[in-house]
Structure formats: C-alpha cells, structure tokens
Amino acid sequence: MGNYAKAEVTTYIDDDRIPNMLEHINPFDPNVEEILDQYDKIYEQETGKPAHINTVMDDILGPFGGCSRNACSVWAQVVKSSQRMYLYVNGYMQGSWAVSTGMAGYTTPNFDRHPDGRIYDRYTSTKYPEGDYNGLGNMPYAVFIKGGYALHGTPKGNWPKLGKPASHGCIRMHPDNGYTFNRLVRAYGVSRVWITVQ
User: Fold this and answer.
1) CB pairs under 8 A, 24+ apart, for 1-6?
2) Does 58 or 92 have the greater pLDDT score?
3) How confident is the model at residue 16 (pLDDT cuts 50, 70, 90)?
4) DSSP helix/strand/coil, 191
5) CA gap 139, 152 in Å, rounded
6) Is residue 120 classed exposed, middle or buried when 0-12, 13-18 and 19+ CB atoms within 10 A define those classes?
7) How would you classify the pairing of strands 119-120 and 111-113?
8) Are strands 171-173 and 149-153 parallel, antiparallel or unpaired?
9) In 3D, which of 99, 93, 59, 58 has the Cα closest to residue 79?
10) 3-state DSSP call for residue 125?
11) What is the mean pLDDT of the chain?
C-alpha cells in the first residue's frame, strides 16, 4: 500500500495541467450534483486523472460502511466552535491546525461520514477568486464530504482568516495541510477515512 501511495503522490505533483473551472461551487445550490458531474468531466479531461477515488473495499462497503471516527485509519475532526481540525492517523493525532468554516449566512453543516470519493488537486472559483496557490487555483487539494461541501486548501490571502469562520460553506485550511489530508485520502481510500464536522 505504501509504495502505491508514494507513486500516486509523484504522479499528481508532476502533472502541471490545470483544469479550466469557470464557475463557483455553491454547496447550497439544489443542482450541485449536476454541476459537480460537469466539473468531474472537465477535471478528468484536463488532467487525465480520475475525479473520484475508489478501491475494491470502497465498492463493497459503500459510502457508510467500513469504520467510523477513530476506528478508521484516518479521521479528520473539524470543531467549528474552535475553528480547528484534528487529524488522526491509525488512532494517533498527527496534526491540529486552524481552519475556516462557513461565515454568517453560509454555515457549514455538521457531518459524520466517509468522504464521498470526489477529490481534486486543482480547482479555481472565478466567482470568489481570492487568489491562486502555486497554479493550483484557489481551492487546491479538495476532498469532498457530500455535495459541494469540501475540505480544501486556500491561497495566501486567506491564511490570516484561518481560525475564524470565513468561507462560503466549505472548510478552508492551509494548502500544506490540505495536501497532507488529500494524500492520506488517496492512500487509504474512502472506506478507511472518516470526516466529522461538529
């Protein structure tokens, strides 16, 4: 498993093509799944990489099977009251960092589930541009929880806002932390990762 994950990291880092995503994902839009399906096609055409990850175990267990919370190999616990994410790997806390959940009018809902399998390295919102991070857009390393809600990195202009509600519903984090979480999800698979937002 470790060698496969390492190869995946190299593949994604070396690919410098950027998908031309022109619309903002609004997680509150009732048509968000159709919009995301279109983004998936664009992402796959532009990068040659799948927009979803799936393992044989994920197919067998489905989006709610397998494990939950700290019984999973990877558990991301987002605590909205403190605007922090706690990352557990194999039962041990590996990191704790500031995040930004939804600001007033864009409240991030609570979740307690596996990610849905949609995963992007690069994404750009033109409606809320807020800069770019190293050619990866303004929402790099997105791991989608459900619908349009995702955990993702954010460009430098938003770093001072981390630790305070400031997003449009998603969970923003420093892109280095976004990369770490994205790669853990890719390495372990959907059925071994759990996301709690409370």
Assistant:
1) 1/187, 2/187, 4/187, 5/183, 5/186, 5/187
2) 92
3) very low
4) helix
5) 6
6) buried
7) unpaired
8) parallel
9) 99
10) coil
11) 80
Q: What is the pLDDT of residues 142-164, one digit of tens each?
A: 999 998 899 999 989 899 999 99
Backbone angles phi, psi at 57, to 5 degrees: -65, -40
Neighbours of 12 (CB within 10 A): 17
Q: In what order do the strands lie in the sheet with 142-146?
A: 119-120, 142-146, 149-153, 171-173
Region 26-52: mean pLDDT is 79
CA angle 6–181–184, rounded 5-degree value = 40
- Structure tokens that stand for 197 in this block: 């937002």
Please check whether residue 84 is in contact with residue 99, taking contact to mean a CB–CB distance below 8 angstroms: yes
**185, 186, 187, 192 alpha-carbon torsion, rounded to 10°:** 40
Question: What is the C-alpha R_g of the chain?
Answer: 15
Average pLDDT score over residue span 130-144: 76
Of 66, 62, 170, the residue nearest 116 (C-alpha): 62
Residue 112 β-bridge partners? 196
User: Distances in Å between the alpha carbon of 13 and those of 9, 37, 103, 183?
Assistant: 6, 24, 32, 11
What proportions of the chain, in percent to the nearest 5, are helix, strand and coil? 30, 25, 45
